[in-house]
Amino acid sequence: MTSPRTTGPRATPSSQAAGSPRTARPFRRRRAGRVRRWLAVPLLAALLTGCGIRSTQVPTDFGPAPSRVPCALSGPDISTQSAHGVPVQVFLLCSEQLVTVDRSVRIPDGTAEAARRVLVAQALLDELAVAPSTPEEQAGYTTDVRGGMTVSGPHDADPEDTLRLSTSPEDLTSTALAQIVCTFSDSAAARDDGSVVLGGPAPAPLRSYECTPEVRAAPGDESPTSMAVEGS
Asked: Which residue from 105, 123, 152, 217 has the highest number of Cβ atoms inside 10 Å of its Cβ?
């Protein structure tokens, strides 16, 4: 009679793994490596957030941040200013240069040429002295021409296209004189060649002024080119 064979508890994979240090160590190392990698993801995101950088999985390029463009006016504001009267342009200061802006002036119909030149000059002078509008101010426009200045026509033996200011041109700042000369030279107040004959109250001498590209580019450094008018 054969006696039954005694057997121990049946081995299981788990028990084999637990009892075999050779197989347990690689399993723990692989698992620990995966845990460390998963823990590194939120840690990296936290570091990026702390530096002000938003983490993303997709590369993005939105270009440079928008910047304010100086000396740029919106179309509606320009059209509103020129809606009534005769459209003209005046030179204002912006970014240390002379830049034209649109304006409008009212001149009575049928005005004689000589009187028209003076009326246009006075209207332009008034526009130069007006504070820039809100959109112009926001775009960086300013003016150095002060209010209260008047302009009159020729006196006695003056040339017929003379314009005499209530303030002598020599007493104006370089930028204010540049604004006036360049604005007048681009209007009906100028001579046929674009020059402007200016003087202070009579009998102050007269000078012929020109608006050059150098003056428009740096009115604070370059005074308008001028020459004495003979006989004045």
From this structure: 123
